[in-house]
Amino acid sequence: MKQLIDFDKQFNEYMDAWAEKLLSDGKKPEEIESLIPQAYEDWSKEASKYFDGLSSDELCQMLSAYLDEEISVPDVLIEKIVSDKDCEKGVYNLFTQERSDNDKIMLMNVLVDMNSALPINDYISMLCYDENADLADAAAEALKYASGVATEKVLEIYEEERDTDTKEKLMYVLVYTEPKVEGLGSKLIELINETENKALIAGMMAFYGDDSCLNALKNAENAEGINYIDYVEICDAIEALGGETDRKREFDGDEYYEMIHSGGFDQ
Predict the structure, then answer these.
(1) Three-state SS across 31-96?
(2) Residues of the chain whose pLDDT is less than 50?
(3) Contact call for residues 23 and 32 (beta carbons, < 8 A)
(4) Between the chain's N and C termini, which has fewer beta carbons within 10 Å?
């Protein structure tokens, strides 16, 4: 296997020398800054040649070695791997191994860039059952950009799920994925009625854009015991869907209202 090179260090040294030369040639700092994207492109073209001629297995071995040695994985290597469909299985195998959270998330991003459907079940499991919030969030983001097969599976699991917190995570994927999943309005209405996270679901309703959610939002707006944060998000959602709200409800004594209006909350 080829020697592991710290490409980040190499690039920084290259850029330092490049900028110093331009300064000595009389270039102004703002001129140099405008040339940075092209300089990076020129450097990366040369750097990527280091991995030319490597097979798919060898590229994945290099990726594994970088991860094991805790050297920053070169972008030029990732670009080579993403462009090689035969690397998909190798990257997935690395993803399924015991690794740090950062490595897991990086490998998930690579698989997303490869439009891989191999880890869909893993993502769903991480989203629903992983107590690590960072991994669960990364899984949700990965599912948003996965294939239509992922959407079908998420929707199927949502229909059977009874835990409200898990349903919220699954609904997040369904609402924000592309292309748009049709028929979520009734499910969003059911969810806002059962969840305590009214603001979360109201935001999803606003993004989803189904005005059949307006009545449920109006009911939530007028419900007893609603807090100020939820109220504001609900009112925003009503207006986003073409409804009207006077925002005249009083919230004196509400902890969130008092924090915001006393200057103790960063808006």
Answers:
(1) HHHHHHHHHHHHHHHHHHHHHCCCCHHHHHHHHHHHHHHCCCCCHHHHHHHHCCHHHHHHHHHHHC
(2) 265-267
(3) yes
(4) C
